[in-house]
């Protein structure tokens, strides 16, 4: 069912009010939990009986559970808003109303998309899902319309390059993707076999709780070179230490004596498993050096 601009605006308005309410609720719960934690601290210093300490511990734990649930609820509302806006954008594009985006604005959008990617924080014993951090998609996974992917396309002299693209549709009978180059200067459409399309992460992995869902140091990967829309072969130099940090990667560059350039930051969203190309052999982006996409 098509979502009209008026309906979309109404839904977003309602959900924004929900987010505002939840933020106030989180603030209230945090103040209450801080009071209980202070009481627990004083009780520990007063050498109260274990039974009373146990009761205070239970209260603090319950506070944390409620606060976590409220925060997760707010994040779900924010994601719903993003989904509505994305649906309207896709509808506008399909109707031929796609607005041209300047190069600088496009690069900013690419950066913001990575920074605002939902953060997965696992609960005790919870398994990290596919497409979170370095965890790949399942073999039968089909990327949704509007999702960003890495797509292997032919460039100059039939050399293959991995580019940042957006899914237009999945052609079920052909088992192929119809994708469009994210670069407004290109606007190229490509119909590619499923093996030439790699879905990008849908969530960031939290280094503090799910470090195992990140690529280990010195792993060979493909990463989006900063201020371009092309993926190139790189090596993980440093892992993010917090939820807001990026990887530091070493891009392959033959102009350096060791074959790799100085470390550069790349967000989790744009670091994926390495796949060699037919023409380049060893270079994920089709070239040993990096140029603007």
TrEMBL record:
Keywords: Coiled coil, Nucleus, Transcription, Transcription regulation. PROSITE patterns: SGF29_C. Its main location: nucleus. It comes from Glossina brevipalpis. It holds the Pfam family SGF29_Tudor. GO terms for cellular component: ATAC complex; nucleus; SAGA complex. Residues 139-280 form the SGF29 C-terminal domain. It is found in: Nucleus. This is SGF29 C-terminal domain-containing protein. Signal peptide: none annotated. The keyword Magnesium does not apply. It comes from the Eukaryota. The keyword Transcription regulation applies.
């Amino acid at each position: 069912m098509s979502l009209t601009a008026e309906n979309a605006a109404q839904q977003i308005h309602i959900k924004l009010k929900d987010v505002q309410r939840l933020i106030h609720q989180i603030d209230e719960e945090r103040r209450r939990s801080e009071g209980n934690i202070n009481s627990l601290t004083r009780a520990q210093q007063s050498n109260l009986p274990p039974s009373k300490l146990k009761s205070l511990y239970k209260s603090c734990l319950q506070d944390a559970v409620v606060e976590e649930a409220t925060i997760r609820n707010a994040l779900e509302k924010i994601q719903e808003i993003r989904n509505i806006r994305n649906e309207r954008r896709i509808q506008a594009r399909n109707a031929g109303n796609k607005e041209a985006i300047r190069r600088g604005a496009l690069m900013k959008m690419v950066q913001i998309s990575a920074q605002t990617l939902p953060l997965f924080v696992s609960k005790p014993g919870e398994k990290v899902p596919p497409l979170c951090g370095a965890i790949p998609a399942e073999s039968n996974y089909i990327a949704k319309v509007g999702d960003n992917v890495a797509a292997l396309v032919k460039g100059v002299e039939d050399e293959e390059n991995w580019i940042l693209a957006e899914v237009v549709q999945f052609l079920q009978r052909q088992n192929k993707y119809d994708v469009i180059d994210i670069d407004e200067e290109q606007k190229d459409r490509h119909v590619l076999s499923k093996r030439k399309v790699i879905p990008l992460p849908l969530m960031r992995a939290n280094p503090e709780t799910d470090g195992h869902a990140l690529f280990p140091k010195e792993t060979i990967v493909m990463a989006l070179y900063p201020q371009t829309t092309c993926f190139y072969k790189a090596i993980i130099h440093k892992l993010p230490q917090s939820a807001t940090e990026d990887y530091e990667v070493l891009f392959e560059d033959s102009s350096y004596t060791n074959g790799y350039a100085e470390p550069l930051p790349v967000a989790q969203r744009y670091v994926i498993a390495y796949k060699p190309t037919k023409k380049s052999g060893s270079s994920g982006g089709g070239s040993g050096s990096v140029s603007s996409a």
